[in-house]
Structure of Sensor-like histidine kinase SenX3:
Amino acid sequence: DVVLHLGVRGARLGTRYVLLLATDHTESRRLDEVRRDFIANISHELKTPIGAVGLLAEALEPAADDPDQVRRFAARLGTEASRLARLTGEIIDLSRLQAADALNQPELLDVDRVVAAALDQNRVAADAGGVTLVSAGDEGARVYGDEALLVVAVHNLISNAITYSPPRGRVGVGISRKNGVIEIAVTDQGPGIPEEDRERVFERFFRIDQARSRNTGGTGLGLSIVKHTIQNHGGEVKVWSLVGKGSTFTIRLPEASEKPLTGQIRLPVD
Ligand code: ADP
């Protein structure tokens, strides 16, 4: 996708030479396409709950004399409003993450703390779904990063693992360290992810089974938020899966050395 600019110069002077300019537009075209798709997806995703809110509002008036109906419609309105709030929140998070290549002020963080916070946020959901959370920490594991962003990333993986767990399923969360890499692994005993979808689950709005996933209340943005957060931290996120047995999502981050990367620079004193 290269545009060639061709010109002939110096013709009037009798000398002729050809000026050839090549500009590669591939990357900017691709980004334009990604942006267009994102906006088209957002519009599509927002239309469903907004449409539902409109219909429910119309249905309320004629149902005014029936308190049961009013209660049902009010509950549905609440559900749609929560969905809209979650969707807009995640869209904003994702566009912020995409706009930033790297973190502003990374801090030295205890990975144990990050994982513990993400686990705590998921305990109610695990209890409600009859899922057991099992975790193994690593006291010395440290990374440079943004604590709030990393907690969201680990939270999203645990929350998915719970959502897709069978009743009485177990979700394991482990931290390990090897060769300067910290690994956070989240394992479930859910339906697994078919090979052809393993890359695609990290795309915005992608859901394996649209109908089933919609019932789980998901937005299809959770894993792309994980991917962008981890990329901004100089790491990567991967998935291993066996269909019918379960999945393991792994976040890999560079281990922080004991000394901070940036420190005060002392000028020599004479
Ligand atoms: P959602 O909000 O729909 O969960 P995600 O981006 O977090 O969005 O995930 C995208 C899709 O990947 C999900 O809709 C689901 O189909 C699939 N998925 C994510 N995590 C798991 C998992 N642990 N087990 C099986 N499928 C999963």
